[in-house]
Design goal:
There is one protein chain. Helix content is 37%, strand content 21%. It has 430 residues and is α+β, with helices and mostly antiparallel strands. It folds into 2 domains: 298 residues, Aminopeptidase (3-Layer(aba) Sandwich); 120 residues, 2-Layer Sandwich (Alpha-Beta Plaits).
Length: 430
């Protein structure tokens, strides 16, 4: 199903879709950095995006507040403020020269849904809270889900003073202060949002891969967010030697040993995938030592990265153990040594079955076909789910992938997602 063949948008949602289209145009203009847009975490582009959304929320009649770390909070009040709120949100930063929709689509959709309810005078039992979350993209500060973890007091207390932005070298604390925010809550491990005050969390987001385009579907319900085992610098140490003088059996070739492990992982991945397991594996950076490598030299040093992801935490552990066993076998066979270095682990996040069912029903009622898929990329939603907050994600069709200026979300697909979200809100808000 193409965007042009989707069911017609309900007339009452047209003003909300027009608002969203206008916001995307203004976001692009405010953060244009050819090619694409740049909205650096705790920088000028992110600041402009937050200000733009805050102004639009005020114009729509929402209450607007900004907390100590810069989280934008846009609230449509319900009848009973004592009830936990339904929360919709995502991030407003981007990668350098990225696309206009990654992250922003979720905040804009939440705001459009709230504006729709405000315009029509729809009353609800509980608050609808829209969050513009800070600093999700790891390319700026080397920390997963920095903004959402800070929101719940989950960052290490030293983070403001040890995390440095890659492009400036300045600390998180310095960038926060420059933007008028306070790192003190992070240092104190103090939560600025009580998980008990959140009834559920919904994150609409563009799909960052090709599945929905290939399947001809406008949107998909996310079943879970893959966890990861990441090793940014696996090193293999062998022995440099003359390329023409050493027979194969006596070589301690670090590069061939590293490539052998990568090839073995690819074969193991194919076996597990064929059995129905959810797994993706990537060796993204490969290099020999440029200070000593040469065409006529057997490489004695090889370095590569590994990124392994799955919805299944047990499978991640099993693949990790298999990798180390395979590396040990290659050490014995090839006379080399593997060092996996300091890796990072992120746990998978399961999406709430009840929220998924509500989205599915809303899609059926609106005549919108919805797929189902795991999210291979990490999202702030994982922070909420990890705290036991019922959480869900709705992916939107997006051509040309993500983290590049060619992101291409059709507003008709956005409208389909908006129809699904507003339909589900009827159940969630009460």
């Amino acid at each position: 199903m193409t965007a042009s063949s989707l069911p017609a948008l309900a007339p009452e949602l047209r003003p909300a879709l027009d608002l969203a289209a206008s916001l995307f145009d203004r976001l692009r203009a405010a953060s244009r950095d050819e090619p694409g847009v740049t909205r650096a975490s705790y920088g000028a582009g992110e600041r402009a995006a937050h200000a733009l959304l805050a102004d639009a929320a005020r114009a729509a009649g929402l209450r607007v507040a900004v907390d100590a770390i810069g989280t934008l909070r846009m609230t449509l009040p319900g009848r009973d403020p004592a009830l936990p709120a339904v929360v919709i949100g995502s991030h407003l930063d981007s990668v350098p020269h990225g696309g206009n929709f990654d992250g922003a689509a979720g905040v804009v959709m939440g705001l459009a849904a709230a504006a729709h309810r405000a315009r029509r005078g729809l009353k609800s039992a509980r608050d609808l809270l829209i969050l513009g979350i800070r600093a999700e993209e790891m390319c700026w500060f080397p920390a997963h889900y920095l903004g959402s973890r800070a929101l719940f007091g989950l960052l290490p207390p030293e983070a403001p003073d040890t995390l440095r932005r890659g492009d400036t070298g300045s600390t998180l604390a310095e960038h926060m202060a420059a933007e008028g925010f306070d790192p003190a809550p992070i240092r104190a491990g103090r939560a600025l949002l009580d998980p008990r005050r959140v009834a559920c969390f919904i994150e609409p987001h563009i799909e960052q891969g090709p599945a929905l385009v290939a399947q001809g579907l406008p949107a998909a319900i996310v079943t879970g967010i893959r966890g990861s085992r990441r090793y940014p610098a696996v090193t293999v140490t062998g022995e440099h030697a003359h390329a023409g003088a050493v027979p194969r059996a006596q070589r301690r070739d670090a590069a061939l040993a590293g490539v052998a492990l990568i090839a073995a992982l690819d074969r193991r991945w194919a076996e597990l995938e064929a059995s129905g397991a959810d797994l993706v594996c990537t060796a993204g950076v490969l290099s020999t030592d440029p200070s000593v490598h040469a065409t006529t030299k057997i490489p004695g040093h090889f370095r590569f990265s590994l990124d392994i992801r799955s919805e299944d935490a047990a499978l991640l552990g099993a693949v990790d153990a298999w990798l180390r066993s395979e590396a040990a076998a290659l050490e014995a066979e090839r006379g080399v040594r593997f060092d996996f270095g300091a890796g990072t682990h992120a746990a998978p996040a399961r999406m709430d079955a009840g929220l998924q069912a509500a989205l599915r029903l809303a899609g059926e009622r609106a005549g919108i076909p919805l797929g189902r898929m795991a999210s291979g990329a990490g999202h702030d939603c994982a922070t909420f789910a990890g705290l036991g907050i019922p959480s869900a994600m709705l992916f939107l069709r997006n051509d040309h992938g993500s983290h590049n200026p060619r992101e291409a979300m059709d507003m008709a697909d956005f409208g389909a997602g908006l129809a699904v979200l507003t339909g589900a809100l009827e159940e969630w808000l009460g």
